[in-house]
Structures are given as structure tokens and as C-alpha cells.
Design brief:
Belongs to the nucleobase:cation symporter-2 (NCS2) (TC 2.A.40) family. It contains 19 helices and two strands. By secondary structure, it is mainly α.
């Protein structure tokens, strides 16, 4: 009797979920979800920048157009990929909140042309260090990242407060009340909304703040004039100026982003079912960030960074296609070119922006606390964190502490983020050796199967 052959298993699809095409009737609503989930970040960041730098409404509208277009271009680049630029994963791109904080610090201390030049220097540095990716990323373990993010959050809360109080620090009661109502509306939206709508809590809070300002007379809503479609203005602050010492906060931050990019890339790869390959994908993500940031520096923005916050939408909907985030990028470009949208948003009262920004940067500070909680604070770790936080907080608590020092020392030590981060990096490297000497030897990577990091492409 001839044996019957076992039935062949069904052929697997040649197309991975991340590369699957989505029907047009589903593509637009799915892309709109991603836009709604991330639109609050560029809007609030632009108005924090405009309020802090006292930009004219027309300049604010142009800056918002630039940021939205760059967010869209970044999403397209990361999702579709060109050569070795872009990881071809469902990523979106945003103006970095922490990077914006440092940009504003440089602008206030050294002027906006120097801040624009600092963005260009930081983006160029990121491209330059990619061949050394595996070595550089080891300088920024969770302990160092936690200190850096916590200090950025604290510094920016102070800056955001000035949007409410004004540059002299003496706020009018109605401005403080309007900011408080905006914060309350933001918290209410976060508590009451569900799913993807919860991620729009900041934007919802800002909208509620504007309505309250107009209804109660606590503020005014005056959109900038203009209509139709237009391109953002090139070099809004004039010709960029290059000062390496002044740019140091952003230079250090650009290196720390490699650690964050690594985690986000691995998480996104796992979410869409692709085997993580940091050595290949992280440099591609970083190159896209750097290239978009180089263009952004010419249009007045700070560093643009790839964000993994939209990964939750992919998990919620079960759609893992990178073409959805590419379509979201196209929508963002369209919104950025629509002049009425950006000029209407330019009329938001400063106190409303200040209230929303307080929430955003308080959340950044909490993120730093969470990173420190995950860090190894045993042995010398607690001492490293304590001294790094002390070095970072001193310039904030005693602003005149380094007034008698040379200019280069004031630039380095007077920036809480730079002083704290450099202290954390140095102490983690130096004191960590004592922990390793007394620790139980770890098994060889060859015995445990732990992969060694390979050189990037």
C-alpha cells in the first residue's frame, strides 16, 4: 500500500505585516488616528518656543508650518526609507521636548542665531558618531539618562512658568488663573477620555483654555493674518552662528538620543513582528533624525526626534503597516502647508500655552524619575545619581554661582543639564569600576548566548 503523503501546510504570506499595504478606504482614518495622537506635541512645542522668544504671530505661524511639514517628512522618511536613511518601521517624528528646552536655554543665553547654529552642529555630530554607535551608547546607561531627563524637565518647568508670569516673574492673577484652568482641563481630558483620544489630552486642554479665555475675558484669541497655502520662512532668526561651547547642551543631548533610539527601535521591531537588529536599524533611524534636524535648523526649529509613542495605536488597532504612518506623514505635510490652520493656532494666548507646557514638562521630569527607578542604584549608583543631580540643580537654585568664572566655565557649569549629565557620565565610568571589582564575575557571553553588539552599517 502506498503511503499517503501528509498535506502540505498552507503557504505563509510573503509580505510581513509591517510591509503590508492597507486598502485606501482604511488608510485615511488609520492615518488620521496617528496624527491626532501626536499633533499636540508639535503645537505645544511651537507655542512654548514662540512665547519664550516673544515671536511675532506671523513668525509663530511660519514656525508651526515648518514643524508640521518636518514631522510629516520625518514620518515618511522613517516609514518608507531611502537607502540607509530610515528604518522602514511605523515611526513618526516630533520636535523633541527636551531638545526644545535646551534650544530655548541657548537662545536666551546666547541669542537665537546661536541656537539655530547649535541645532546644525548637534545634527552633524549625530551623523559623525554613528560609526562609533556601539561605544557611544554605553556612555548613557539608564542612570545617566534618568538624571538628564529629570534635569531637563525641572529646567523647563521654570521656563514654562515664565510664559504665565512674564519675563519679570510677576504674573497677573488672570494669567495665572487661565493657566490653572488650562491645566485642569488637560487633566480632565486625560481622566475622562479613552483609547487614542486620551493621547490628545494636551491638545484638548489647549482648546478648552482658548474657549475659556474668550468666554471669560481672561485672554484674547487673535489669529495671525493670512490665507491659502504658503511655505515656511527660511532662516527666521537670521544667519546661524556657530559656538561649540554654547552648543554643548544640544551636543550632549544628541549623543544621549542614541540610547533612546535603541530602545524605541527594538520595541517597535518587536511590536510589528520584525526581529530586532539595532546594529542595522538604529543608525538608519538616527540618520533620518539628523537629516531632518539639519533642515529644521534652517527653518528655526530645534532637533527633530523619532518617537515611539504611536506604537500603542498599532497595538490597539492590530495594524502594523508602515504605510499607515507614511500616510500620516503626508497628512501632516498638507496641514503644515495650509496657512489658515497654522495662523489660527498662532493666536492662542500665552497663558494657555504656559499651562499646557507645565503639564508637558512635568511629565518629562516624571519620565526621568521612572528611568532612575529602573536604574541600578545599588553600590556607587546612588552616589552617582545624588552628585549628578546636585551638579545639575545648583545652576537653577543659585543662578549667580558661577558668575566669577571664565566664560567657557560659565557655559558648561551654568547649564544644569550639561553639568549634571557630564557629572553622571564621569562618575558612572569612574565609580562603576569599584562595583565591578567587587561584583561576582558574570558568565561569558558565549556561554549565555548574549549577542555582542555588532558594528553598524
Amino acid at each position: 500500500m502506498t503511503p499517503t503523503a501528509a498535506p502540505a501546510p498552507p503557504a505563509a504570506s510573503d509580505t510581513a505585516p509591517v510591509d503590508a499595504r492597507v486598502p485606501a478606504r482604511r488608510l485615511l482614518p488609520l492615518a488620521a488616528q496617528h496624527v491626532l495622537a501626536m499633533i499636540a506635541a508639535p503645537v505645544s512645542t511651537v507655542f512654548l518656543t514662540a512665547g519664550t522668544l516673544r515671536l511675532a504671530p506671523g513668525t509663530t505661524a511660519s514656525l508651526l508650518s515648518a514643524v508640521l511639514i518636518l514631522c510629516g517628512a520625518g514620518a515618511l522618511l522613517q516609514s518608507l526609507g531611502v537607502w540607509r536613511v530610515g528604518a522602514r518601521l511605523p515611526f513618526v517624528m516630533l520636535p523633541g521636548g527636551a531638545a526644545t528646552a535646551l534650544f530655548l536655554q541657548i537662545a536666551q543665553d546666547h541669542g537665537t542665531p546661536t541656537a539655530a547654529g547649535s541645532v546644525l552642529l548637534a545634527a552633524a555630530l549625530l551623523i559623525a558618531v554613528l560609526p562609533l554607535y556601539a561605544r557611544v551608547v554605553r556612555l548613557f546607561p539608564p542612570l545617566v539618562m534618568g538624571v538628564t531627563v529629570l534635569l531637563i524637565g525641572i529646567a523647563m518647568i521654570r521656563v514654562a512658568a515664565r510664559l504665565v508670569t512674564g519675563p519679570d516673574g510677576e504674573g497677573e492673577p488672570r494669567a495665572v488663573l487661565l493657566a490653572g484652568l488650562t491645566v485642569a482641563a488637560t487633566v480632565g481630558a486625560y481622566v475622562l477620555l479613552r483609547g487614542v483620544w486620551r493621547q490628545t489630552a494636551i491638545l484638548t486642554g489647549m482648546a478648552a483654555g482658548v474657549l475659556l479665555a474668550v468666554a471669560t475675558g481672561l485672554g484674547t484669541f487673535t489669529p495671525a493674518p493670512g490665507s491659502g497655502f504658503s511655505l515656511p520662512a527660511l532662516l527666521p532668526y537670521g544667519t546661524p552662528e556657530f559656538d561649540v561651547l554654547a552648543a554643548l547642551p544640544l551636543l550632549v543631548f544628541s549623543l544621549t538620543t542614541l540610547a533612546e533610539i535603541t530602545g524605541q527601535t527594538v520595541l517597535n521591531s518587536e511590536t510589528v513582528g520584525r526581529t530586532p537588529d539595532p546594529g542595522r536599524d538604529v543608525p538608519r533611524v538616527a540618520r533620518a533624525d539628523a537629516l531632518v534636524s539639519l533642515v529644521g535648523g534652517l527653518f528655526g526649529t530645534s532637533l527633530m526626534v523619532t518617537s515611539a509613542e504611536n506604537i500603542g495605536i498599532g497595538r490597539l488597532t492590530g495594524v502594523r503597516s508602515r504605510f499607515v504612518t507614511a500616510a500620516a506623514g503626508a497628512l501632516l505635510i498638507g496641514v503644515g502647508l495650509a496657512t489658515p490652520v497654522s495662523r489660527a493656532l498662532a493666536g492662542i494666548p500665552e497663558a494657555v500655552v504656559g499651562g499646557s507646557s507645565l503639564v508637558v514638562y512635568a511629565v518629562i521630569a516624571v519620565m526621568g524619575v521612572e528611568m532612575l527607578r529602573r536604574a541600578d542604584l545599588t553600590g556607587t549608583g546612588s552616589m552617582t545619581a545624588a552628585l549628578a543631580l546636585a551638579a545639575g540643580l545648583l545652576p537653577l537654585l543659585a543662578p549667580g554661582l558661577y558668575d566669577g568664572f571664565p566664560g567657557w566655565a560659565r557655559t558648561v557649569l551654568g547649564s544644569g543639564v550639561v553639568a549634571g549629565t557630564l557629572t553622571a557620565v564621569l562618575l558612572a565610568a569612574l565609580l562603576g569600576r569599584f562595583d565591578r571589582r567587587t561584583a561576582t564575575p558574570e558568565p561569558d557571553a558565549a556561554k549565555t548566548g548574549t549577542p555582542e553588539p555588532r558594528a553598524p552599517e
